[in-house]
Amino acid sequence: MTSYVESNARERMQHLLDANSFEEFLPPSRRIVSPHLEQLDAPVSFDDGVVIGRGRLQGKKVFVAAQEGGFMGGAVGEVHGAKLVGLLKRAIKEEAEAVLLLLETGGVRLHEANAGLIAVSEVMRAVLDVRAAGIPVISLVGGSNGCFGGMGIVARCTNAVVMSEEGRLAMSGPEVIETANGVEEFDSRDRALVWRTTGGKHRYLIGDCQAIVADDLSRFRDAAVQQIAQWQRNGTQLTLEALEREHEMLSHRLDAFGNVVDPMDIWTSLGIEAPGAVPLLDPDAFVDRVGEHRIVRTGE
Question: CB neighbours (10 Å) of residue 134?
Fold first, then answer.
C-alpha cells in the first residue's frame, strides 16, 4: 500500500501510471517559473507547482496533471494554469484516451490574483473542450490540502471525481468561510465538522463525488480505470439535456437541504442508518452501508 496523501506529485504519477510510461512536459530542467513571484521576491519552483505529461494507464494513452501541494499549497498562478491548459489542448490534438487531473490546491495564489483567476477560467473552458472531443476527464482528490477555490469548480466540470476520505472538496475553504462569516457560521478548528462538510464521504453522499476509495494509490488507479471505461461507454460530452438534469438535481438538493445546519442531518434525511457511525467506517464498509441512499449525479 502506498498512501496518496503522503506522496508528492511525481510519486503519485509513478504509482498511478504503467511502469516507466510517464513522459513529463516542461520538467524542472526547463526552469519554467512564475514571473510574478520573482518580482515579489517570493520563492519559486522550477515546475511552478504542477507536473504535467503523458503516459499509459493499463495500456491506454492518458494525459496527466498533478498539483504539488508542497509548493504554495498547490495554488494556481498564471504559469501553473497555462501548463494545465496546454496539457488539455494537447490531449485533444493527440487524441488521448483520457485525462487525469490529480488536484491538490487551496485555489488561486493571492500573489497573482487576477492572473490566477483568469487561468482557472481558461482551465474550465479547456476541460469542457476535452469532454466535447469525446475524451473523459477524471479528477482525483486525496491530498492533505484538499481541492478548493476555482479548482473545486474545475473538478466538478470533469466527468467524474474520485476521492479518499482524507480528501476534501469545496468552493470556499473552512478558514475563508470563518473569516467572512464568523466562527459561529463555521469553526475551521473543528476538524470533525470540516471533514463532515467537505470530506470525501459527504461529497459521495450528495453526488459531488462518483467514487470513494481508501488512501491507497492502487485504489485510486483502479477507480480511475473504472471511471474511464464507464464514461467511454456512456459518452463524455456535456449535452444540454444532461446539464438540465444536473440543474434539476442541484435544485432538488437545495430545496431539501438548504436550511440544514450539519451534514449529519443530511445523512439522516437520505435514510442512512446510524449516521453517527459514518465517519468511523472504512470506505468499503461505508459504500455498503449507504447503498442506494446517496444522490446520483447525471451520467453515473
Answer: 14
Q: Where are the extended beta strands (E) located within 35-120?
A: 50-57, 60-67, 98-102
Q: Which pLDDT tens digit goes with each residue over 40-50?
A: 778 888 999 99
Q: What are the backbone angles phi and psi of residue 118, rounded to the nearest 5°?
A: -60, -40
Burial 7-31 (b: 16+ CB within 10 A, else e): bbbbebbbbbbeeebbebbbeeeee
How far is CA 273 from its chain centroid? 28
Q: Which three cell numbers stand for residue 283?
A: 470506505
Answer whether residue 154 shows pLDDT above 90.
yes
Which tens digits make up the pLDDT trace of 54-64?
999 999 999 99
Contact indicator for 137, 98 with CB cutoff of 8 Å: yes
Q: Cell digits for 278?
A: 459514518
Instruction: Encode pLDDT of 102-128 as tens digits.
Output: 999 999 998 888 888 999 999 999 999
Q: If DSSP codes are grouped into helix, strand and coil, which group holds residue 24?
A: strand
Place of cell 498562478: 77
pLDDT over 70 (residue 79)? yes
Give the residue extent of every domain in the chain. Answer: 9-293
Q: 9-293 — its CATH code?
A: 3.90.226.10
Residue 97: Cβ within 10 Å count: 18
| Radius of gyration of the chain measured on its C-alpha atoms | 19
Which pLDDT score is estimated for 36? 84
At residue 141, φ and ψ (nearest 5 deg) are -130, 110
Among 73, 75, 63, CA closest to 13: 63
